[in-house]
Amino acid sequence: MNSTTQHVLKGSLSVIILRLLEERDRMYGYEITQQVKALTAGEMMITEGALYPALHKLEAEGLLTATTELVDGRARKYYSLTRDGQQQAVGRVSELRAFVEHLNTILNLKPAI
C-alpha cells in the first residue's frame, strides 16, 4: 500500500470503523484490522498505531462504548456503537459515499485538448 493510499485510509478510518460496527454489532481491535484486510483482499491494511487512537477518539466522542471480556485467559476489549454512534454511522457513510461519487466524476473527466 502506497503512502497516498495510507493517507486517504487514515482520513476515512473513523467511517470505516463505524460502518463495520454498524454491520457486526461488536468487534475487537485486531478483528477490525483483519476484517478490513479480508474485505479488500489485502489492499488496505490498518495498523494498530492508527486504529487504537481512532477507536479511543470515537469512544471519547460518545459514539462507541467498550466492554472488556476475558477470552482464553486474556482481556479483550470489544467496541460497540452507542445510539448516537448508530446515527453518526449512517450520516458519515452517506457523506463519504457522496464524496467518493463526486471524486469519481472529477477523476473521470476527459482531458481538454
Task: Walk me through what this model shows.
The chain has 113 residues and is an alpha+beta fold. It has a single domain (3-107), classed as Arc Repressor Mutant, subunit A (Orthogonal Bundle). The chain contains four helices and three strands, in the order αβααββα. It has helices spanning 3-24, 29-39, 48-60, 83-107, and strands at 26-28, 64-71, 74-81. It starts with a helix and ends in a 6-residue tail after the last helix. The model has no long low-confidence stretch (mean pLDDT 89).
Main features:
alpha+beta; Arc Repressor Mutant, subunit A; three-stranded antiparallel β-sheet
Largest sheet: 3 strands, antiparallel
Q: Please count the helical segments.
A: 4
Q: CATH superfamily, please?
A: Winged helix-like DNA-binding domain superfamily/Winged helix DNA-binding domain
Helix proportion range: 55-70%
Q: Mean of residue pLDDT?
A: 89
* Total number of distinct structural domains: 1
